[in-house]
Each structure stands twice: as structure tokens, then as C-alpha cells.
């Protein structure tokens, strides 16, 4: 038993360590976004979401929120839908920036969010499996909130900027934002416990951020999402915080971590609130929220 578990652990660690440079919050980030979102669903939306979840999710939306990364090889065209890089002017413009490397329009994270929102809203569109639409949507709403998903095209959203995390680990800037900041925050502030971190961030939505929360979820359009606004915010945060003072070979330590961690936690909160708002809009918003 013990040996099997150990072997499984070694296998998992090996797989994770050898995963290619990716454009996505790692599991922890996506898990928190979806965990927060599920708690902000109306009872009507919650029932609809639960009925669409695959059996292996055991009723937890958060369990499915890294599916889009895990299955990327199965859907090669979906790679472009995880991000929306820009020419480096700290802004996102749909017409200019939302395309894949072959120039195909709409193939970026904002296009993906709008696509799968429309697919779920349209109950007469049986061509797209609604379970798959839900899992893509939940993942991409997380992704668009990671500032380096709307980073510079030149450096692949920070993937080619090699940095040293606290002198000890060679990593790259994109990965610092996907993973290293979250893992250090978890260790230093939350007893290395993802559910504590999630709960503290979630609680702050009705406390520290209570005066901003309505604005986060506001979206005037009934048919489209406001994901282009979220991408614009990320592009600005990429310049103001993520790229700020960083060069090839930089050593990132406490100064960098303490400027980044409040941004990471806020983006996770915003991602959760907005994913819930999108799902509430799709599945009916006349019912009462469960827990706000
Ligand atoms: C929209 O969804 C369909 C079905 O999964 C997919 O083939 C298409 O590439 C998607 N387009 C965008 C922009 O997300
Ligand atoms: C809904 O889906 C059907 C079938 O794919 C399509 O013909 C129709 O145009 C869609 N309606 C909207 C409003 O997108
Ligand atoms: C809670 O909100 C306050 C006010 O915006 C913010 O400064 C703080 O970083 C937030 N705390 C967490 C854990 O995200
Ligand atoms: C990196 O290591 C050097 C030499 O050991 C040390 O002086 C410096 O404070 C370290 N920097 C960080 C950010 O940990």
C-alpha cells in the first residue's frame, strides 16, 4: 500500500515537473476560482451546473477546472483559447489581439469565454456537449484573470523570461504567476492548506472587497460576456506588476512576492465572482443566491 502510494506520488510529481511551459494558472489557482464561483451560484444555476458535471467531479465544479489543461493534447486547437497576448502596450483590443498564431479570429481566451457562454445559453445547439462547454468556460474565466495570460507576444506571456525564485529555483516568469506565488502564499500564510487559502479569499469578498464586488460582476450585455474588460485589466496588471523590474535572469524575492501576492489573491476572487455571474446569467438569475 505505502509503496504503491509512494510510487503514485513519484509518478505524479514526475508528470507535473515535466509538464511543458503552459499558459494557465496551475491546479491550485483554477481550483480556488471555481470553488469560489460555486458558492456564489443561485440555487437554479447551482442545480444546472451540478447536473452537467461529469460523475468523477462528485458534484464539485472545482474538480473539473483543470480539465482543459489536462486534455489540451486531445483538442490541439484549444491551446490558443487559454490566453490573449498583446504587442506589449499593456492593453487588450479584441479586434487586434483575439486570434491564434495563424491569424484565425476569435481564437483567444476572450473568444473562448464568449463561445462557450453562447453554447451553454443556446439550448438548441446540441453540436457542443454542454459538459465540455462548462468545463472550458470555467477554466478560461480563471485563465483570463492571470495577468500574464494577457502578457507580451514576444516572450509568450513571460514563458521565455527565465528567473530565479528566491535564489533556489530556476523558473520562468509565467510559471511564477501560475504557481510559485500561490504555493509560497499557501505555505507562508495558510498552513499549506488550499482550502484555508480559498476560504480566506472568499471571506474577503464580503469584507475587504465588499464595496467593489458589485462592480466586478456588473456586465451590461445580456448576450455577451465582459471578458474583454477582464483581459484589459490583466494586460495592465501584467505591465504594472508582473513585468515590473523583471529582466532575463532576475532574482525574485520578498519585494516581488509581496507586491504580487495581493494582486494574485484579488484576481482569484474576481475570477470566482465573475464565473458565478456568467453562470447565473446563463442558467437564470431569478432565484436567490445561496451564500451571499
Ligand atoms: C467554439 O467551440 C467549438 C466547439 O468546441 C470549437 O470548435 C471552436 O473552435 C470554438 N471557438 C472559439 C473561439 O472558442
Ligand atoms: C443555436 O444553435 C443552433 C444550432 O447549432 C444554431 O443554428 C443557432 O443559430 C444558435 N442560436 C444562437 C442564438 O446562437
Ligand atoms: C482583502 O481585501 C483587502 C482590501 O482590498 C486587501 O487589501 C487584502 O489584500 C485582501 N486580503 C486577501 C487575503 O486577499
Ligand atoms: C540570493 O543569494 C545571495 C548570495 O547567497 C544573497 O546575498 C541574496 O540575499 C539572495 N537573494 C534573495 C532574493 O534571496
UniProtKB/TrEMBL annotation:
One of its GO terms (molecular function) is RNA endonuclease activity. Residues 1-17 form the signal peptide. CDD domains: S1-P1_nuclease. Pfam families: S1-P1_nuclease. Keywords: Disulfide bond, Endonuclease, Glycoprotein, Hydrolase, Metal-binding, Nuclease, Signal. Gene3D superfamilies: P1 Nuclease. It comes from the Eukaryota. One of its GO terms (biological process) is DNA catabolic process. It catalyses: Endonucleolytic cleavage to 5'-phosphomononucleotide and 5'-phosphooligonucleotide end-products. Its EC number is 3.1.30.1. Belongs to the nuclease type I family. This is Aspergillus nuclease S1.
Amino acid at each position: 500500500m505505502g509503496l504503491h502510494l509512494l510510487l503514485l506520488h513519484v509518478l505524479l510529481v514526475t508528470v507535473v515537473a515535466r509538464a511543458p511551459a503552459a499558459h494557465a494558472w496551475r491546479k491550485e489557482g483554477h481550483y480556488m476560482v471555481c470553488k469560489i464561483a460555486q458558492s456564489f451560484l443561485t440555487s437554479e444555476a447551482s442545480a444546472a451546473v451540478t447536473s452537467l458535471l461529469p460523475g468523477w467531479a462528485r458534484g464539485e465544479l472545482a474538480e473539473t477546472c483543470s480539465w482543459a489543461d489536462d486534455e489540451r493534447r486531445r483538442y490541439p486547437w484549444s491551446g490558443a483559447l487559454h490566453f490573449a497576448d498583446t504587442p506589449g502596450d499593456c492593453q487588450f483590443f479584441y479586434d487586434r489581439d483575439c486570434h491564434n498564431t495563424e491569424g484565425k479570429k476569435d481564437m483567444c481566451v476572450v473568444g473562448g469565454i464568449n463561445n462557450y457562454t453562447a453554447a451553454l445559453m443556446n439550448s438548441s445547439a446540441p453540436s457542443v456537449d454542454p459538459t465540455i462547454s462548462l468545463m472550458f468556460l470555467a477554466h478560461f474565466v480563471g485563465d483570463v484573470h492571470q495577468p500574464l495570460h494577457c502578457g507580451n507576444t514576444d516572450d509568450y506571456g513571460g514563458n521565455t523570461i527565465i528567473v530565479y525564485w528566491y535564489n533556489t529555483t530556476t523558473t520562468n516568469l509565467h510559471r511564477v504567476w501560475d504557481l510559485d506565488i500561490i504555493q509560497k502564499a499557501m505555505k507562508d500564510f495558510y498552513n499549506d492548506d488550499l482550502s484555508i487559502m480559498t476560504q480566506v479569499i472568499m471571506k474577503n469578498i464580503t469584507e475587504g472587497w465588499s464595496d467593489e464586488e458589485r462592480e466586478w460582476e456588473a456586465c451590461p450585455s445580456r448576450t455577451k460576456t465582459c471578458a474583454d474588460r477582464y483581459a484589459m485589466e490583466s494586460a495592465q496588471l501584467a505591465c504594472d506588476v508582473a513585468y515590473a523590474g523583471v529582466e532575463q535572469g532576475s532574482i525574485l524575492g520578498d519585494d516581488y512576492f509581496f507586491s504580487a501576492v495581493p494582486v494574485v489573491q484579488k484576481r482569484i476572487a474576481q475570477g470566482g465572482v465573475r464565473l458565478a455571474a456568467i453562470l447565473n446569467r446563463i442558467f437564470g438569475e431569478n432565484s436567490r443566491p445561496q451564500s451571499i
